[in-house]
Design goal:
alpha+beta, two-stranded antiparallel sheet
């Protein structure tokens, strides 16, 4: 199903930074955080909306006429013909209500037009094209339309189906933090900064990062984050993360590490002892 959809989509989906993070703590939570809230339905909403963005091959939005059960199959939801299709319908209704998509209802299929990532109901324009257009009149165009790119293998190799909503969210935050500067860059942010910029809970962050490690999409190490501060009285250790985007080209799998339980050595028994 994903290979079939790839013929309609971009080689790299474009997602604006403003979907993932906010500029100031005074603003409402960014769309990513708002979309995830609300239990199991949050991850379907997030994955469905990202898939809508992936299938925008042109610089302006086009209508998508795709069956609910096809979306459910793409995302590997249980019972795609019935229960899975209902979950897609619920997610689509939420996205329409919160002005991330526009839906035109016809006899058999809903025609979906993706809207701007901000949730303000504005027409969607590809970030690169929008930045180029606004650059002619304002230097802020490139900043307002900064975006990350997600390779189509995120879909065609099954990663979007295997990862939880928390893992997908943290993958997007790390892409933003990386800023396209290469996979060898150490990425980290304090809990206060993560709350201020991304408005994601500690549970979401820890679960998502742990799952990304098990999926092979990041490696995590303990590193000092102030080692160049000569006036520091002590080194502050943090978990730092390194993206491993080459893993997207391989079939998706999440394989938690097995805990090794060491049993205490038993003393030898004397003869005649049962």
């Amino acid at each position: 199903m994903a290979e079939s959809a790839a013929r309609l989509g971009r080689r790299r989906a474009q997602v604006r930074y403003t979907f993932v993070e906010r500029f100031t703590h005074a603003e409402e939570p960014p769309p990513l955080a708002r979309m995830l809230r609300g239990g199991r339905g949050g991850q379907v909403r997030l994955k469905l909306y990202l898939s809508y963005l992936w299938l925008q091959k042109d610089d302006t939005a086009r209508e998508l006429a795709i069956r609910h059960n096809a979306w459910a199959t793409l995302l590997d939801l249980p019972d795609p013909e019935k229960a899975g299709a209902r979950r897609i319908g619920d997610a689509q209704a939420w996205l329409e209500e919160h002005r991330f998509i526009d839906v035109t209802r016809t006899g058999r299929l809903n025609l979906v037009t993706v809207l701007d990532e901000t949730g303000r109901g504005e027409p969607w324009i590809a970030p690169g094209a929008a930045a180029k257009k606004e650059k002619e009149s304002s230097d802020l165009g490139a900043l307002l339309h900064r975006y990350v790119q997600i390779p189509q293998t995120f879909w065609t190799r099954g990663h979007i189906a295997v990862l939880s909503g928390a893992a997908v969210a943290m993958f997007l935050t790390l892409l933003c933090e990386n800023g396209g500067l290469g996979e060898d860059r150490a990425l980290w942010f304090s809990p206060r900064e993560a709350e201020s910029r991304f408005a994601l809970s500690e549970d979401t962050r820890s679960k998502g990062l742990r799952e990304l490690v098990h999926a092979g999409l990041i490696t995590t190490k303990r590193r000092p984050v102030n080692e160049t501060d000569f006036q520091a009285e002590a080194l502050y250790m943090r978990n730092v993360h390194f993206l491993r985007l080459e893993r997207l080209a391989e079939p998706a799998a999440v394989t938690p590490r097995r805990r090794v339980v060491r049993l205490p050595k038993q003393r030898g028994t004397s003869a005649g002892t049962p």
